[in-house]
Specification:
Blueprint (H helix, E strand, L loop, with lengths): L18 H13 L18 E3 L2 E5 L4 E10 L5 E12 L2 E7 L4 E9 L2 E5 L21 E8 L4 E5 L3 E4 L7 E5 L4 E7 L3 E5 L4 E5 L3 E3 L6
Antiparallel strand pairs: 1-2, 1-8, 2-3, 3-4, 4-5, 5-6, 6-7, 7-8, 9-12, 9-15, 10-11, 12-13, 13-14
C-alpha cells in the first residue's frame, strides 16, 4: 500500500515583530500542529472509512481497503471473535480476504446506505467465531456506520507506544499497548498520525506495523 502524505498548515507570523519573537512563534507553530488542519485524499470507491458495528474500516484514494472485525460476548466468561480483512474496491463492491490466527477465508464487502454489508461464507470457522458470529454472515450481514474517520489504512502497534499530542497539557494523548489496532491518518518515514478508539496523536513509525495477509 502506498505511503500517504499529509498537508500540515501552520500559523503565519507578522514581519513587524522582533526577529527573536518571530523565530519563537515559528518554532511554536511548527510544534503545535492543529490536527484539524491535516488533509488527506480519500476515495475508496463507495466505501467511507470509519467505525461500523464491530468493524474498523480504512480506505485509501486507490480503493485499497483494510479492516479489522471484533465481536465479544459474555461477561464473566468472554467469547471473542476477531479477524482482519483486505481487498480493493470496485465501485461499491470489494472482494476481500479475511484472516485470523490459523486460517484465511474469502469474503465480500458491499457499500450500502449508512453502512456496509459483510459476507464471509465460512466466517464462523475463524478462531473463536463459531459461537459468536451469527449464521447470517454466510449470506451477508449489514453493519451500520457509527462514525466516519479519515483513515487511509489500519496499523498494528508493534511495540508499546505513547501518542504525542501538543493540544493536551501533558503532551501525551494516550498509551497504546503492543498489538493494538489503530487507524492511520497519514504515515511518514519517522512519525505517523494514528487514531485509537479514544485518542489521536503522533507515534514513531518504526513501532507501527501494517495490516497485511500473512504468508502461508
Amino acid at each position: 500500500m502506498a505511503t500517504t502524505t499529509c498537508s500540515l498548515q501552520k500559523n503565519t507570523t507578522s514581519t513587524s515583530a522582533p526577529k527573536n519573537l518571530r523565530l519563537l512563534r515559528v518554532a511554536t507553530s511548527v510544534i503545535a500542529v492543529t490536527f484539524t488542519s491535516i488533509t488527506v485524499s480519500v476515495a475508496g470507491g463507495g466505501f467511507i472509512p470509519g467505525i461500523y458495528e464491530g468493524l474498523m474500516l480504512a480506505a485509501d484514494e486507490h480503493g485499497n481497503l483494510t479492516g479489522y472485525y471484533r465481536e465479544e460476548q459474555g461477561e464473566e466468561v468472554s467469547k471473542r471473535c476477531s479477524f482482519y480483512l483486505s481487498g480493493k474496491a470496485k465501485d461499491d463492491t470489494a472482494t476481500v480476504v479475511t484472516w485470523s490466527y490459523d486460517r484465511t477465508l474469502p469474503g465480500q464487502l458491499i457499500a450500502v446506505k449508512d453502512g456496509v454489508e459483510l459476507k464471509v461464507p465460512l466466517g464462523r470457522e475463524h478462531t473463536g467465531c463459531g459461537l459468536v458470529l451469527v449464521p447470517e454472515i454466510a449470506r451477508g450481514v449489514v453493519l451500520d456506520r457509527i462514525v466516519k474517520k479519515k483513515w487511509v489504512e489500519l496499523g498494528v502497534v508493534k511495540a508499546a507506544s505513547s501518542l504525542s499530542n501538543s493540544s493536551t497539557s501533558s503532551g501525551v494523548s494516550a498509551f497504546l499497548p503492543k498489538g493494538a489496532v489503530v487507524g492511520v491518518v497519514c504515515k511518514g518515514k519517522r512519525r505517523s498520525l494514528v487514531q485509537s478508539e479514544r485518542a489521536i496523536g503522533w507515534m514513531d513509525s518504526r513501532r507501527l506495523g501494517q495490516v497485511e495477509q500473512p504468508a502461508r
